[in-house]
Amino acid sequence: MSDAPDHDDIAQRKMQFLFALRSRGVTDARVLTAMEKIDRGPFVRGHFAARAYEDMPLPIACGQTISQPSVVGLMTQALRISPRDKVLEVGTGSGYQAAILSQLARRVYTVDRHKRLVVEANAIFQQLDLTNITAFTADGSFGLPEQAPFDRILVTAAAEDPPGPLLAQLKIGGIMVLPVGQSDAVQSLIRVTRTETGFDYDELRPVRFVPLLEGLGRDG
Fold first, then answer.
1. Which of 51, 111, 129, 211 maximizes the CB count within 10 A of its CB?
2. Can you tell me the distance from the alpha carbon of 45 to that of 59, in angstroms, rounded to the nearest whole number?
3. What global pTM score does this model have?
């Protein structure tokens, strides 16, 4: 019984976590269920582990961040994923976003330019038995042509414009969600829908993400 207070404390923090998501506009029942099922705890390491259930971005290795949970939820909700979808994520980072996507889609491919992040994320995916995620070390600005086309694409780093290779790898009827803007200014989260004749763009909300960089990280 000695671990009961800790267990109760975690349960309370998780309940507050879900309340914070709803209060910030994450209302899709499937997304909330996925975020309840995937514990953010294992994806936050070191001194910041105690803050895993706070709605804030936190530093991770390689100068990157794990996004604020409400932003993860809003981006996931904006994708409108269906259970048969094949999804590409550009920017694996901690692996938390890919783990959420894995609960909603048939298959998730995730790429990151930092090999260390991919190795660490893969270890968590194995620990959580998330068998429908495939993670690669690659330059995500070129997408993953060998697995294209994708029903959904999520980019977790800001580009000045939606990268052409990613637009090309989106199925007709497919959706891409990404932050767009200069890295030193306010960025906008946008949703791009591919139509028979081109692309439709919706601006969703202001955000701030690390920039989308070409090439591999020094550890990749």
1. 111
2. 9
3. 0.91
**How many other β-carbons are positioned within 10 Å of the β-carbon of residue 164?**
11
- The CA-atom distances, in angstroms, between 207 and each of 33, 149, 158, 203 are 24, 27, 9, 11
Q: Among this protein's residues, is 67 annotated catalytic? A: yes
* pLDDT digit string (tens) for the chain, length 220 residues: 444 446 777 778 888 888 999 999 999 999 999 999 999 989 998 888 888 888 898 888 888 888 999 999 999 999 999 999 999 999 999 999 999 999 999 999 999 999 999 999 999 999 999 999 999 999 988 999 999 999 999 999 888 889 999 999 999 999 999 999 876 667 999 999 999 999 999 999 888 887 777 766 565 4
Domain boundaries, the chain: 4-207
* Backbone φ/ψ region at 95: left (φ over 0), alpha (ψ -120 to 50), beta: left
Q: At what angle do helices 4-23 and 69-79 cross, to 10 degrees?
A: 50
Catalytic option among 23, 67, 102, 141: 67
C-alpha closest to that of 25 among 78, 65, 67, 66: 78
Q: Does CATH place domain 4-207 in 3.30.70.260?
A: no
